[in-house]
Amino acid sequence: AQLIKLTDYEETPYVIETVSLVFKLHAEATEVVSTLSLHPRARTPAGTALELDGDELKLLSIKLNGTPLEDDAYDAAPDKLVVHNPPTEPFKLEITTQINPAANTRLMGLYLSDGIYCTQCEAEGFRRITYYYDRPDALSVFTTRIEADKASNPILLGNGNPQETGRIDGTDRHFAVWHDPHPKPAYLFALVAGDLTCISEKYTTASGKPVDLNIYVEKGNEQRAGWSMDSLVRSMRWDEKTFGREYDLDVFNIVAVSAFNMGAMENKGLNIFNDKYILANSETATDLDYEGIETVVAHEYFHNWTGNRITCREWFQLCLKEGLTVFRDQEFSSDERSRPVKRIADVVRLKSRQFPEDQGPLSHPVRPTEYKEINNFYTATVYDKGAELVRMIKTILGADGFRKGMDLYFERHDGDASTIEDFIKCFEEANDTDLSHFSLWYHQSGTPHLKASSSYDEAAKTFTLELEQTTPATPGQPEKEPFFIPVRFGLVGPNGEDIAYSKAEGARVDGDLLCLTERKQTVVFHGIGSKPVPSLLREFSAPVKLEAGLNRHEQIFLMRHDIDPFNRWQAAQTLMSEMLIEMTNGDIPAGKDAFISALANMAEDENLDHAFRGFGLMLPSEKDIALEIGKDVDTDAIGAARDAFAKEIGASLYDTFERIYSAIEVSETFSPDAASAGKRSLKLRCLYYMAASGIEGSAALTKAHFDAADNMTDRMGALNLLVTWNLEGAKDGLQAFEKRHQGTALAMDKWLSIAAGAPNEDAVSTIRTLTEHPAFSWDIPNRVYSLIGGFLGSNTRGFHKADGSGYDYLAEITLHLDKNNPQVASRLVKSFGSWKNMNAERRVKAKAALERILNADQQLSTDVKEIVERCLD
Ligand code: B3K
Ligand code: ZN
């Protein structure tokens, strides 16, 4: 496969003004007639060939202005259609292809999921339907006619607004025509046909335009779609209020399908979702699922403006829509729930997914400059770090300046296929400022390391802060420039309140914001009456690794007193992480008891909300610690240290946890709201430590929690503890759960993931056995992500077992999955991204497994090959 480069970008020589599609749906032989109205651009030389993309296509016929093309006038291959010498005047091309949705196991293009026809076109799936300019800058107006058997496919959906429907005379078939007035790229095309049912709501936009909202699900699931509808309505209101963005069609349809490679897709007016992000009730969904649904529904809806109305010029600009839309969905959830808690959750996610990516062989800039397979770049870096960059723009410009920039972006680029440069320019012009140094964040990869040290001069009443940034080399970028880093901060005085300074020198400092621009800067604060503890990077104001230069005593002080809740949490995390590393090395951490007692106070602090207290108690994961250690990692030692620490905290604070656990009352009728979810999560966190303690009665208490659970959060949470700590009752619990939920795929996914995450001497055989379970299937991504993804993601000791069995197994299933679904295979094989951090024994095994994939006797997909090669590089 060839390397695609940003610098090679060129406009298409022809413009597709309109496209009219007719789908004659049949499971194994669907015919697609595509009529394109084309014209050459003014500067296109006469005789320039028209080259359209294809992928595994079969051409049935091709006509130019109504006349079949002579054989020598075109060349058709499965992956390309070339029309030689097209007219120099506007012309019409009618292309008929035949495709096989039933055989489409890659879940890209048109495929069948549980008898439902659906599509996934981003990034390059449309070319698996018909020959086309399958690239985001080719915007066109689409009309779609769908024809299908009426009894098995009563519902026919397309993009835009419905036009007409009817029977096809003399057959059992019917049709529907949809028209989308908004020009769009092919990746936003969608079609659905099947036997579905829907829930509906009427919505009126801020300016009074009525919109029909429908969420389509398989029959019998309609009572599980209510939360999604609720989330959709709240998202629409929020975007009007917060960004002044209204919806722009008469209908907004969502469809939930069970076979889907990722979370969901923002097709214009017809979002298609993985059913995991639509279906929820208290019996089958956890609080985290409810939160995820709210986020993803909002995210896809917000794409209507950031993604669809303004799209990307090419795929290198992916973060233009994804980073920005993630930022928007994060802000939405922060407004709907608790802002500090949401911030903590987002940072946990960033640090656990993006930091490892950016510190390993798969590191790439938020806006990459080359790729082989674009589907490999839907990464935590593009999405989550991309969102952090937008957040930093807001931090630097302030809320009003940010909004002005966004307003200009919407106004100036509506209808465009745009770039990051266009986006940045809007903020610069709207605020009369220069963001050129800041823009480095889009181009330079890697996680900067920020090191702080400080000193206090009592006589001069000055406080001096030294800050130094370094960014380690990343693939393709050996030398790094200093970043523009916004550091929100406070100087915390002995009474816990921030001390005001009279003057600051040495950097751009404005109120509580300090902006670093150089490798090393010394900032002197004047008028400081007593020695402060600096609280740096409040709200996690930049995606950097901070070494705060504080001793344990000072960290504990911040954990107790910082007015920034995020940094209170961060202080606790830093302490836990440092101590866990010392324990991993066989040392006994200094200040452990003082820390444990501060932890108890935080857990009991009634002034903090429950969810925050739950997060405060969260131990860094084994993976987090491995990343923090960074080299020669022994995952068994980490696991043992972490287990021991949990046990010790559990034993020394047992009474505290028991007290908190019993005092929290959750209302009897289930509600997924943030407050109730926070109570459940704090209770489960207390139970986690009690279960870990080994103290008599704790296993029975955990089992009782499981037995009494009347919702999935508690049931799954308690079962996970029984299994994780291998308590009496684990086996019974697993059986009871299975009995209760067999037949409900999304619930059984949880059962698979709990079993896969459990520490276990012979984890790989356990997984192998589970792949034979009726609840599992290699063909449905959700099943694979739950079982295999659960093993790779949560079973650190199992996956990184020193004998290499985890690596061998990943190699084996990568090759197996790659034959049918390269995107799923490629996503899993990314778990090798951390192999270079392991100790020598493990590295040898991992490298051998990676090489085995590369040298296997089968044709590898570009997706898998690219990842494996980058890992080995
Ligand atoms: N835009 C889609 C992701 C498509 C992934 C293609 N491999 C979902 C989203 O980010 O909203
Ligand atoms: Zn998105």
Automatic annotation (TrEMBL):
Enzyme class: hydrolase
CDD domains per UniProt: M1_APN
Peptidase M1 membrane alanine aminopeptidase domain boundaries: 227-438
SUPFAM superfamilies on file: Leukotriene A4 hydrolase N-terminal domain, Metalloproteases ('zincins'), catalytic domain
Residues of the Peptidase M1 alanyl aminopeptidase Ig-like fold domain: 446-547
Domain of life according to the entry: Bacteria
Coiled-coil parts of chain: none
EC number: 3.4.11.2
InterPro entries: Aminopeptidase_N-like_N, Aminopeptidase_N-like_N_sf, PepN_Ig-like_sf, Peptidase_M1, Peptidase_M1_dom, Peptidase_M1_pepN, Peptidase_M1_pepN_C, Peptidase_M1_pepN_C_sf
Sequence ranges assigned to domain Aminopeptidase N-like N-terminal in this UniProt record: 52-188
GO biological-process terms attached to the record: proteolysis
Keyword Protease: yes
GO MF, one example: zinc ion binding
Pfam families the UniProt entry points to: DUF3458, DUF3458_C, Peptidase_M1, Peptidase_M1_N
Cofactor(s) this protein cannot do without: Zn(2+)
Residues annotated as domain Peptidase M1 alanyl aminopeptidase C-terminal: 553-872
Reactions catalysed according to its record: Release of an N-terminal amino acid, Xaa-|-Yaa- from a peptide, amide or arylamide. Xaa is preferably Ala, but may be most amino acids including Pro (slow action). When a terminal hydrophobic residue is followed by a prolyl residue, the two may be released as an intact Xaa-Pro dipeptide
Keywords: Aminopeptidase, Hydrolase, Metal-binding, Metalloprotease, Protease, Zinc
Similarity remark: Belongs to the peptidase M1 family.
Name of the featured protein: Aminopeptidase N
Organism for this UniProt entry: Pseudovibrio axinellae
Lineage: Bacteria, Pseudomonadati, Pseudomonadota, Alphaproteobacteria, Hyphomicrobiales
